Amino acid sequence: MALEEQCSAPPRWQAISVTHVEFPEGDLTGKLLAYISLLPVAILVGFVTLIVFKRELHTISFFTGVLLNEGVNWVLKHILREPRPCAGSHTTVYAEYGMPSNHSQLIWFFVVYFFLFLYLRMHQTNNARCVDLLWRHVLSIVLLGMASSVSYSRVYLLYHTWSQVFYGAVTGSTMAIIWFFFTQEVLTPLFPKIAEWPISEYFLVRDTSLIPNILWFEYTVTRSEARNRQRKLGTKLQ
Fold it and tell me: In this protein, which residues make up the domain named Phosphatidic acid phosphatase type 2/haloperoxidase (predicted)?
């Protein structure tokens, strides 16, 4: 259906509780896409959770880039001042302007940055074995599908036009490329010094950028510590 027809006869909207994301009443596809459009919110929650529990400098830098990307989106929206499609059709809209799409810009920033991390940074630190390459490719396809779905959901639900979503994706991708190389070339060499700051030591902030495989490192260290404690406990019981 053309956008003009959708705007001339807007559907009755039903909102997902708490989030206020609206979808056409009785439209199962719209309901699914409404939940998919919440993925950027889940990403932000995931970042905060990782920072609180891991306190790793690269994660903090990644999240800083996300916040900077959000700031750029706000500035562009208030410079361009392009209205959303079907103005007034939704009962709850947090931002008046639609160019560029906030959701599209955020999700493509996240996905493109992750692509670069998988294929450039991890390539430098891990052996390019078949299994490693396979899971990177599979994860990349999943991320690409996720970003495309979020972008499409914003058009389907009449929150944005195709051009607003497209330029949001372009802006987010560009910001991700800039921020990734800035992190790699400027910030990463500074991480060891930052980790030694008194405030970093107080809040247990750490730098794992020099560890080739952080998952394997954490697994082996945790297993070794658990075995040592088990031996000590067994010695005490004897």
Answer: 59-180
